[in-house]
Amino acid sequence: MFTGIVEEKGQVKSINKNKSSLTLIIEATTVTSDVSIGDSIAVNGVCLTVTSFGNNWFSVDVIPETFRGSSLATIKIGSQINLERAMSASGRFGGHFVSGHVDTVGEIKRTWTEDNALYIYIKLSDEGLHYVTLKGSICVDGTSLTVFGVKEDGFIISLIPETQRATVLGEKRQGDIVNVEYDMLAKYMERLISAKKENKSTRDESITMEKLQQYGF
User: Fold this and answer.
1) Which segments constitute the Lumazine-binding domain (predicted)?
2) Multiple choice CATH, 8-85, 3.90.226.10, 2.40.30.20, 2.40.50.140, 3.20.14.10
3) How many Å apart are CA 205 and CA 202, to the nearest integer?
4) Strand, helix or coil for residue 197
């Protein structure tokens, strides 16, 4: 489990690419300070397992499912990437619940600035827009962000100067592909409601939109 608060920007030092899988060696300092084999690290928002490590580097494997469902297939040697270790139970929770299981990829349609803010309009490639809510949470390339606009084909986020500096999103341009993970609470809620409807339950404890609103959801 992650928070979407990026700890550092790493750099891809080596790529061993097969037909539909990758082995990456990533240079980093913060996330390798206490790393162990088997640890989970979010790489541009994708939860990957450390398979080996050394002085300021670690390696991970990207299996075909992840290769096809994320933007990792497009990275190159020298690419900078967002990195975050799995959240600690003793630390502050500054973002939102992020699983590291990417739902889809989006394409940057437009970027613009206003004063000190960088706005990014991301076009979605699937039918998950109903999970995106104005002022709600969303994870883009492993970064926990707030939705500032919802369009027919995507959404708009805004980056403060610190996020522009500390993550790779500040360097993204029109046409770039990014990993998107929807708010997991929204996905769980949808599944609960749809499951009850499928079962056609008539018991009083059935979950309906009316009951959720009645209890403050």
Assistant:
1) 1-96, 97-193
2) 2.40.30.20
3) 8
4) helix
Residue 92 CB partners (closer than 8 Å, separation 6+): none
In 3D space, the residue among 189, 182, 115 whose CA is nearest the CA of residue 155 turns out to be 182
Write out pLDDT tens, residues 66-123.
999 999 999 999 999 999 999 987 777 778 889 999 999 999 999 999 999 999 999 9
Q: Tokens in use for 201?
A: 């339950």
Other C-beta atoms within 10 Å of 12: how many? 19
Segment holding 33, helix H or strand E: none
